[in-house]
């Protein structure tokens, strides 16, 4: 896999006024502290933030951080594949800098998809592929007009739209906060796959 990071620390306005819009009321932000179990422990004060004020509040609290990386995955055969380890290998160092935030994954393709599902039993991935092939038929009897690249062409586009090309996962204490049995899947819908690019964007504190 090949990847490159674009990483920066950004001071982000809490609200961006729409161009030409009338001024809006000031934003009020609760500033407090968290207990060890991530529940609010104390409320220190209420800050009033103007739309042009940067998101550094509460006596110099750190501003939101952003990092972005494009990961190139090698070709995978048609079917559903668990790629969590590959993603974590590429973003693990940067991910560890975030205590709380979001990880957004975006696939640059229209004939593959991303989803979150079972990370343990590979039969789940096989059964999902069987289901997709059953509900989106291929071959001469299929009603599709778009067949420029073969009988799997239009079915691949339909499956991509069904499952989607983007995921958003919470970040907690430097880790992707997924359930015990959840994993990130790349679903390849073409018979002759190619490398797939995934843009990973991290933001948070």
UniProtKB/TrEMBL annotation:
Pfam families for the chain: YjbQ
Protein name per UniProt: Uncharacterized protein family UPF0047, YjbQ
Annotated source species: Dillenia turbinata
